[in-house]
Amino acid sequence: MTAVVVPKINSNDARYLLLEWVAADGATVRPGDVLALVETSKTVEELAAEREGVLRHLVAEGAECAPGEAIASLAGPAPVRPAPDAAPDAAPDAAPDAAPAAGPELVVTAPARRLMDELGIGEDALRSLGKKLIRREDVAALTHPAPTHPAPTRSALDTASTAPVGAPSVADVSRRGAAREETGPGSGRTADDIVLPVSQRRVAEVVARAHREVPAACTVVKVDVEDALRLGRELTPALRTLIGLPELLVKAVAGLAGRFELLFATPVGPGRVRRAAAAHVGVTMDVGKGLFVPVVRDATGRSLREISRTLMAYRVAALRGGLHEEDLSGGNITLTLHNESTVTLAIPIVFPGQICALSLAAPQREIVPAPGGGDGSAGFAVRHTVHLGLAYDHRYVNGHDAIVFLDALRAALEAPAALAEDPA
Amino acid sequence: MREPVRAERVSEHLNRALHDVLAADPAVHVLGEDIADPYGGAFKITKGLSSRFGERVRSTPISESAIVGAGAGLALGGDKAIVEIMFADFAALAFDQLLNFASKSTAMYGRPVPMPLIVRCPSGGRRGYGPTHSQSPQKHFLGVPGLSVLELTPFHDARALLEDGFAAGRPALLFEDKVLYTRRMFRDGVVDELFRYEPPDRPDGVVRVGVEGVTGYDCTIIAPGGMAHRALEAMRELLLEHDVLCELLVPARLYPFDLGGLLPRGRHVCVAEDGPAGGTWGAEVATRLYPVLWGRLARPITLVSAADSIIPAAPHLEREVLVHAHTIRLAVLEALA
User: Fold this and answer.
1) In chain B, helix, strand, coil percent, each to 5?
2) Taking the model in full, what pTM does it have?
């Protein structure tokens, strides 16, 4: 008999939701058969069988499960009924009470607890390590993504060496399970309480952390997008894919990764950032099912058409709830879209682990002096303009870099033909 | 499931050990001031012995030199003696008997002569007993050829320790931290929910306390039995508050000191004792460890001891002089900072 164990789907959630059993209890499954759907705070993932056997559910639909937890067993063809527990050994024992069914009682050091709170990791995630004692390095290891997939929420703290030793300050007092959901009797919940969905709580963690950790400043420029909008209207039917300001802007951003490497870098410690090889541009999407930031990976090497198709596929997936963790991770710069209705200005939040975030407001019509007629003699023209903002982590970037970067984007959008011609 | 039986207190454990030793070997005598029933000794460790074993357990006049001399005489004459000194401070009065008679007798009569003599010394402070009833004078008895220095611990079986001391054939001092008497023995390899211990390989061997399945430690603390609880408390705080993981080595024999093949697994080593600074047991331990650990140590071994001070009677002043859990904790943090 082997256990069906929940894999670690992402670095952000301590628990997932067992959304649905696809394979029934008692069903015989073959390798590759989908057993269950597991919902993280951002996506729904399929869990497939790794071997043949008779499936026995251990966890009910709708229950939470943690990475490393066994949610089912796969037995040989004959269904195995577990024997009732034998009477516990009556030998006197000086050890504390036996571990509860939820797993061994963990001993978590205060520095580890602080990091858990900071990263929103619950105890259940740590149980999967099979260790009784949880030190800071264990928590840090749990949050270290594989090198090919840097998590969007990785912070400089993760890569800091072991915590400096010193007397804890008052602020350091560990808060037990601050990141865990309060439920059950004594949680103080009443009928008037609105319990936010997991995805929103995840958003809360990220923005709260950004607010705590990132001393951001923001600079805004005005961009004339008359030509860019016109180009988009021409290219959309020609390329058979939607070309609008977001697509053109992602393309423009991607083209600047080499020139402004600091803005695309990842903080790895005080006074140190890690260079990125290419732009991986996260783009905010909220289609009424929560906020998602799918990432256009390797945008630097892609044509406008490819970028557009990628974004469209993400929109469709967001609508259908089909975004995967891999779509949402690995961004190194974020474009927040506020180009709906009459938004004139938005100040974005810098994602922890990134250095800057752009905001694109909605185009506005305004009367401007006609080109070449600075004295008004040539009259006036109506043009579309838009506010383009850049919030940046002021620990790494100063206003000058921000302005030069915004100005380069403005230049690219005001002469947009080059964006369309670039085959890369 | 049956309620686990609580481990016995160290005082009960030691009392039972004395009963067992006397019952098992009719050659054993116990001497000391006020040890006979109904009083049963200043700390009640000898309770019930005189009622049960009669003349083999004798209350003596107040003369440490005479008592230890009589004990050494019993040993020389082929019997075995356990002598209780009421307070370890007064062992100084028996120093001549130990240095010039008991320890020398093993080797000055032309052939090896076994000297099965154990001198029990309730030591240590933290009770507000003042300068002459609170000392930990172990260091004054180190380095005497033929004389062993032992210390009671909450890990080691006291009967085995006593019988092993007799079997060694050389006189021994057994220091017993008074505060330990009211604490409970550890058993079954369990210290608490965090720490486990490995029993010693011999009755006076070294107990190793650590976290199950962990082999790499930030620091190894070496401490005698009287310091064990304070070291454990420091270890808990170091781990839970600072993420600094320590192991603890507790020898029952302080001199001659021998780790018995157990090597400290920590990156750093700290030796803690409750005797005053200067010419300490810790310095002896460090000196013996340096050649063994020379290639591994990143910094000198940290020595923790009481202050270079006479122990005040006022509890709040006494606290400033003696070693506490936080003394060890700060020393380790400072060393690793």
Assistant:
1) 35, 20, 40
2) 0.54
